[in-house]
Amino acid sequence: MRISSSYFFQTGLNSINAQQSDLLHLYQQAASGQRMVTPADDPLGAAQAVNLSQSQSLNERYAANRDVLKMNLGNEENALSSVTTLLQDIKTRLVEAGNGTMSDADRATLADVLRNSKETLFGLANSTDGNGQYLFSGFAATQPAFVKNADGTVSYAGDGGQREIQADQTRRIAATDLGTSVFASAASGSRAYLTHADTGNQGTGVIGGPSITDPQGDHVGLPFTIEFSETAGPDPVLQYTVHTFDADGDAETYGPLNYDEGTTTLQLPGGVQVAFSGLPKAGDSFSVEPATHADTELNVFDTLDAIIAALDAPADGNPLGQAQLANALASAMQRIDVNYDQVLTVRASVGSRLSEIDAIDANGSARGLSYANQLSKLEDVDYYTVTTQLELRRSALEAAALAFKKIQGTSLFNMGSS
């Protein structure tokens, strides 16, 4: 069979080009450090690398989200720590206000102190995250959580949405808490009771702290109303009647029962009692209700307004005024205690979320290392192998060039071209 010279040239050129192409590919691998210069080098490995890269990017995004969470929750913890200290100081001031030796002037001074405390608390309730976002406003993060009304009262101006951030593929964590849940509500499951004396009372009856005498009592957790009346006749007897309301709103009435001025507690039906003293008058009424039923009355700013007004009102030499002050103080102390407990509950929740974020962070870091290791196995070149292959390919290229040169110089080559 006769072989044309063009075939000889083309075959030699193809062999040299193939060796050069392989050598160039190895050079590219060595220079880039990548095993797959193009997806064609390993189609399955390239697809796996794309999936792993996407998972790694998501893992990094979740890590960035957790950093934002830690910053927001850290800011909230700082704010709540200051609120805790402030509420402790307010409780101390309320105890001072109950000191029977204080004059009207002393109480007025104390009222000014509480006004300043209210302003400080207002500022803390409108804390921001450092980027102009209000911590306790819900989704309405660009507006203050609390605003002052024309009459000087403070009300919540945020919304009911709680901001959550995706901390991991299957976990969203609240980045902040609502202002209403921090400053105007009782802790979930609280069994605390609150008392209130009617503003129209004319007697000197003072209602104190309620307590549960029987945790399994039929009426524990239900609200009560205590109403005083007098019997008819020349020698009227002071009596009181207790009304309680079940979950359906149905009322039950107990009494009337005779009231003795030396009484120190009133036994309410169903496992509850309340401290009581003084001499009420017919028509006076008092309420005793669970803190969880009284969320509308637990705005800490309203509580401060009420006690400030009570401290400003003259009471020296006025038994009725002193009774009203004592009732206002008792009511305020109970509400501040509930607010204080709720702030501690929220702080505990913040701490628990920060701990969870740390745990998720550790898992995310381990996952990131795993992704990086798998990607390295798929993408990174083995330099020992590639340098060995470079030497082999370079030798092969030299051999192919030498073979072409020798074949070109043979007489048979010349004969084939005639």
Automatic annotation (TrEMBL):
Keyword Ubl conjugation carried by entry: no
GO cellular component: bacterial-type flagellum hook; extracellular region
Main subcellular location of this protein, as a coarse class: other
Domain Flagellin N-terminal: 10-139
UniProt GO BP: bacterial-type flagellum-dependent cell motility
Taxonomic superkingdom: Bacteria
Subcellular location per the Swiss-Prot or TrEMBL entry: Bacterial flagellum; Secreted
UniProt entry keywords in alphabetical sequence: Bacterial flagellum, Cell projection, Cilium, Flagellum
Record-level Gene Ontology MF annotations: structural molecule activity
Family, similarity comment: Belongs to the bacterial flagellin family.
The name this protein goes by in its record: Flagellar hook-associated protein 3 FlgL
Origin species: Pusillimonas noertemannii
